[in-house]
Amino acid sequence: MSARSGSEAPQKLDLTSSDPPLVVVVGSGGVGKTTLAAAMGVESARSGLDTLVMTFDPSLRLKDALGVDRSAQQDEVTVPLDQTEEGGVLRASLLDAARTFDRLVERYSPDAEARDRILNNRFYRHMAGHLGGILEYMAVERLYEVASEGRYDRIFLDTPPTSQAIDFLEAPERIVQFLDSGVLKIALRPWFDREGSLRVSSGIAGFLGRRLESFLDRIVGLQLLRDMSEFFRAFEPLFDGFRRRAEKVQALLRDRGTIFVLVTGPGEARIPDTLFFARKLTDCGHRLGPVVVNRVHPEFDPATISSLPTDFREGVDLFRWLGDTHRRSISHLRELLPTDQVVTEVSLEADEPTDLEALAALGNALGHDLVASCRDAASSSQ
Question: Which domains does the chain have, with CATH numbers?
């Protein structure tokens, strides 16, 4: 495949430089996004950059490795690094969708009465933090909040564990569409009177009105409908602010200072998803950086295999076949991507990183591989 034009060329990533300042790590679930985001964050901080890694409830092993606990849901937590004074600060943050929502309400409510009206609403307390799309939208809201403060040289964002993280990319646009939709206008109508009765049924005489209320109560629950109606009406003063921030988040994700690192796994079965996501990113105006193929089986030296005892050769042959299969699939992926697309491989290790030392080693190796891959991609496109 030929190289792209200069405006469409993928952006390089040097973990020792603060350009670009925002790195969004995306990809399918189960490919090691969180581990690689943490490893890149450690390498960035050790190179002298004040760095924040934002992630979404990673595994307990990774929380232990970073020294992060639930307190990171309240604020950014400093990760202690064993390094020289020239090193930067590394902080980690776990997204708490409900708490982020609370902070937005507290910050942007016009007054204390409006704030309390929302925060004390039963629908908001029990459901709003768990509605479909809320996690993804709160992720971009929190990202915009941190990026606007300008306290870090570089931010790594590990995207939500969705099948393709498309929900995350489309969250701001969906919020804008919802705020401009007719559905919201219908929800904002005064459906209940001051006594809590449904206005529609109160306009229907006697028995029929009571039957209608009873039917709706059995099917949906009138109390839920009252809480939802109150929630949307209480939230109305904040809608314009949410729309403006959603538009700013869209601009941030398409800014030239934002790069998307696409993480995938080896094997032919992963290629369609990888190509789809790469095309989705570029079509939406995002800057695609390196494609990282994670957990690639290593190549075995034939001479080493022949020297092993016969009992071991059958198992080693299987691993060699996996390694050959992975390398063929990566070659196929490179052929299908533009010639100037950076593709980096990360070898499969016997164990996932379980401490800062292991994450530092992974980040250092990945940093060197990214620089080399960028150089190779540039030369191959000439």
Answer: 6-168+255-381 (3.40.50.300)
Backbone angles phi and psi of 352, in degrees to 5: -65, 150
Joined together, the tokens standing for residue 317 give 């042959």
Q: What CA–CA distance (Å, rounded) separates 160 from 157?
A: 9
| Angstrom distances, CA of residue 107 to CA of 115, 128, 241, 251, 294 | 9, 17, 11, 22, 40
pLDDT of residue 221: 47
Give the separation between CA 290 and CA 376, rounded to whole angstroms: 12
pTM listed for this prediction? 0.80
**Burial of 305 from C-beta contacts in 10 A (0-12 / 13-18 / 19+):** middle
**pLDDT tens digit sequence for 4-43:** 544 455 578 999 998 899 999 998 888 888 899 999 999 9
Structure tokens at 326: 């992975």
Contacts of 158 (CB under 8 A, 6+ apart): 25, 33, 34, 37, 38, 53, 54, 55, 56, 58
Radius of gyration of the chain (CA): 25
What is the CA angle 262-46-79, rounded to 5? 85
Residues of the chain with pLDDT under 50: 2, 5-7, 201-209, 212-213, 215-217, 219-221
